[in-house]
Amino acid sequence: MTTRTAKRRRRLAGVAALCALAVAAAVVLFRQYQQEWATTPLVVSEGHRAAQVYEAADEALSVSAGTTKKAAERAARAGKLKLPAAAKGNPEGYLYPGTYTVRSETTPTSLVASMTKTARKRHAAAHVDDYPTLVVASIAQAEADNYTDMTKVVRVIKNRMARDMPLQMDSTINYALGRSTLNTSLADTRIESPYNTYRHKGLPPSPINNPGREALKAATSPADGDWLYFVTVKPGDTRFTDDYEQHLKWVEEFNAEQRNGT
To answer: Which InterPro entries match (predicted)?
Structure first.
């Protein structure tokens, strides 16, 4: 082998090594780029409670369970979420429904702050400018599945409060018990909780979920009517009346539907 040939081979080997290093570096940079720009959508559905939002956020952020809840509580205490004084540091009702983009730099605190910022804008646009109205919107969101019925639920709430009647909303008991069910027992109505609107008159102390656009609008634009009672006999069939005897008949229809599994 000549000296010239050996040098040429060494040069080629050196070039090959440099190319390999360049390729490896490019792969690393590309993967970093992918990680930095990778996004995960977080969907907050209308009517989701804070507990559900926190759980979904933990999963989207790939953090341990309870991380987002703790971050939200710290941020609320520090005034970073800009909640009204009436909320007493509770973000329930201010984790606005929508699709949020989670990136590598997103933190639990920044994510929750984004939700509450969006909520403030949406509440203002809907003219929901006081805490009680937001609480009413959350009940309407839980009790009805369409805008028309939501406006009627709001009217029932207002009519009952005007008569100093307890609201007797099953949705508030479900919230107190951390569940979602159509059936409320007599024992349920006796639980000791400020969210038990069978025992305590007036509104519950906070929203019971995070209401969306239609519920917010309904809370400020209730339907006209003298209704005091309502029952959803089956999906899509909610009936309103001011006649207690008629209400009881419809409740029996509901119970029959439940017994028949329809």
So the answer is: MLTG-like
